[in-house]
Design goal:
10 helices; mainly alpha; elongated; two-stranded antiparallel sheet
């Protein structure tokens, strides 16, 4: 397996791997391999650097999706802010991947941008809106300050309870 060979050669491979990440579209394996070579904060910094300010307009959406997937479950406080930017991407696959990543980071830094994305009047993707609603239900996050806007966007069968948590009617 290529990843095992790279890890075996050690940190001297990091610059070559970085070059690969900038150049190639299929990056998941390289990011996972680098995770084995670098300490957590250094790895997060590297991945956030690869993501940079890229959008689906200047980068393959599948590459962005792979990067976002690798950032799932990262508790590093820098991750939420960078990933939240992807909620504005033109490609709904990138927005969906950003939702999935933010949903694995249980913090206000994840809740707030998801709430903003849910209440965005120009969000056309039902899939994106539905997934955010499900995340709020699953996490039991409150919609503080956005009650009316959220109520207007909830599909049939969904409601806000008194404490401002999204609930689904029992079928």
């Amino acid at each position: 397996h290529d990843g095992d060979r790279v890890v075996g050669t050690g940190p001297s491979m990091v610059p070559l791997m970085l070059d690969y990440l900038k150049r190639e579209q299929e990056v998941g394996w390289a990011l996972r391999t680098l995770r084995r070579l670098l300490d957590g904060p250094t790895w997060v910094e590297l991945v956030l650097g690869v993501l940079g300010n890229h959008t689906s307009e200047d980068c393959d959406p599948e590459k962005l999706e792979q990067i976002l997937r690798e950032l799932q479950d990262q508790k590093d406080p820098r991750v939420s802010a960078v990933v939240a930017r992807c909620l504005e991407d033109l490609d709904d696959t990138v927005r969906f991947a950003a939702i999935e990543t933010l949903s694995t980071i249980d913090s206000e830094e994840s809740r707030a941008p998801l709430l903003t994305a849910l209440t965005k009047p120009d969000e056309e993707s039902q899939r994106v809106r539905q997934r955010i609603i499900e995340v709020f239900r699953d996490k039991a996050w409150e919609v503080k300050g956005f009650r009316r806007a959220v109520e207007e966007r909830l599909p049939q069968g969904w409601y806000l309870d008194r404490s401002g948590r999204i609930k689904q009617l029992e079928a």
